[in-house]
Write the structure tokens for this entry.
Amino acid sequence: MTRNYTVYVENIGKVYDEPNLEDAQDAYYAWVQISKSGRGRAAGESVTLCKPSGDIMAEHIGTLRVEAMLDEMPLVQALWWYMENVGADTSAWASTIFFHLRSRVSKESWT
């Protein structure tokens, strides 16, 4: 078992692997901001901070993972998942869910 905290970024891999918790948290939050920025290789990617035991300590679910999950879920299940896991407090997430769900519903059902 490792004694290091690790930060993983989807599509990149392990980006931090050291024993200092404060530095690991700083790295985690920095990569979350990069993911949220929408620019670069980490744009929209999920970021995970793991304890030395391997347990997840913090996780940012990126918009790319949400989009993939929503595409595979039935419409009602996708709405339920979104409200339970993301909530309606961020406009970026709200626009992501609206765009993907709107594209799955025919125009006739909106009238």
